[in-house]
Please model this.
Amino acid sequence: SSGINAEWPLRPGNNPVMTAKTCELINSECDVDFIDLNVGCPIDLVFNRGAGSALMDRASKLEQMLTAMVQVSDIPVSVKMRMGTCESKLTGIGLCERLKKTGISHITVHGRTRQQRYTRLADWEYIRKCKEAADPVTLFGNGDILSYEDYNMSQKFTDSVMIGRGALIKPWIFSEIKEQKHMDVSS
Model:
């Protein structure tokens, strides 16, 4: 491939020592704006190894990982997660309350569970509750931002948003948000 990757996905798994060592290496050798631990990954292969969204059910280990990462890094450390692993186990709010004490710079919450994947709309009311629990840490919401109207709606629930699938579907979504209008890019 050509060019430089904007993201470097590293997979230290669920080991706090390995995660801290990886973070320390990134801190000393890379020029990045922040280091994000993705605890939202719903992929079975990752989940079954105890990493990704599986860490949402292991709050103490997740807390250890983030605390260790923050301690070895001059670069801001953040975490991305979901509401929980399944509807009967919504752990996001409680995790926000715990993880804000680790020294992380911000939290991103995807408004679905691992089990839901993309079968339901993102739950922005749940994201709002996570924002309250995370205070004073900045909270980004994620899920179903597919238009400037979706972005505007999200602003009453969270500090800001992370746009994922919406940018893949409509790469010009950021221009639509900035200009507050729909754009026809078919020509």
Remarks:
- The helical segments are 16-29, 44-47, 59-72, 92-99, 124-134, 148-154, 165-169, 173-179.
- Strands lie at 35-39, 77-82, 84-86, 89-90, 106-110, 138-142, 160-162.
